[in-house]
Design a protein that fits this description.
Elements lengths: L1 H15 L3 E4 L12 E5 L2 E5 L8 E5 L8 E6 L7 E11 L6 E9 L2 E8 L4 E8 L2 E8 L9 E8 L2 E6 L2 E7 L8 E7 L3 E11 L1
Antiparallel strand pairs: 1-15, 2-5, 3-4, 4-15, 5-14, 6-11, 6-15, 7-8, 7-14, 8-9, 9-10, 11-12, 12-13
Length: about 200
């Protein structure tokens, strides 16, 4: 009986999040991608032979100050409960490297972000409230090989789970942002990073 109940719950959740939206940037021309707003940084679509979805990737190339969060936000959809993922490839950065996923975004000072930094070998989950960044959970000593990897975040109600390459590393409960919000991509300071195959499903 318990297995039947769990299966029904999984099917209900799967149905609730069945609407998936995918951005592979392959139909975009050089420059900022359609359907996104740049909050900070330099974001542009460009061809890249290593792209998981050829021929294009989305690149963040600004070398910003240490206090700057380079961020690009999709104009739609607005989601509360979601399953969000992206392929990413860290290129360079002396102060910071790597990148992350943004969700339940209200504005540039209020949102959740989960990010991986290959300089520090760590994965961190934060909420940014009124511009102040607070760590909710973190894990160290995650060494990834150079190249493409997958970041994934799920949030249902107040429960957040964060994955890298299908392995769960972080889990937290937080009620800072209870309403639906936009999703996006994130790097910090001088982290130059490529992104591809941004996917989201939810409600």
């Amino acid at each position: 009986m318990r297995s039947i109940i769990l299966l029904c719950a999984a099917l209900t959740l799967s149905h609730a999040m069945a609407e998936e939206k995918v951005w592979n940037f392959d139909a975009d021309k050089d420059g900022p991608p359609a359907g996104f707003a740049i909050e900070a940084g330099t974001w542009a679509v460009k061809p890249d032979e290593s792209a998981p979805s050829k021929p294009n990737v989305l690149a963040q190339t600004a070398k910003s100050d240490n206090s700057v969060f380079n961020m690009l936000v999709a104009t739609e959809p607005a989601l509360k409960d979601l399953d969000l993922s992206v392929r990413f490839k860290a290129l360079s950065g002396e102060t910071d490297q790597g990148g992350g996923l943004v969700w339940r975004f209200k504005d540039a000072k209020n949102y959740y972000v989960a990010r991986y930094n290959p300089l520090e070998f760590n994965y961190r989950l934060y909420h940014i409230l009124d511009g102040k960044r607070t760590q909710l959970q973190g894990v160290n000593k995650i060494a990834l090989e150079p190249g493409w990897h997958t970041l994934r975040v799920t949030m249902v109600g107040e429960k957040i789970e964060c994955f890298i390459d299908d392995k769960k590393h972080l889990e937290a409960t937080d009620a800072t942002f209870k309403e639906a919000g936009k999703i996006g991509l994130w790097t910090k300071a001088d982290a130059q990073t490529l992104f591809d195959e941004l996917k989201v499903s939810g409600k």
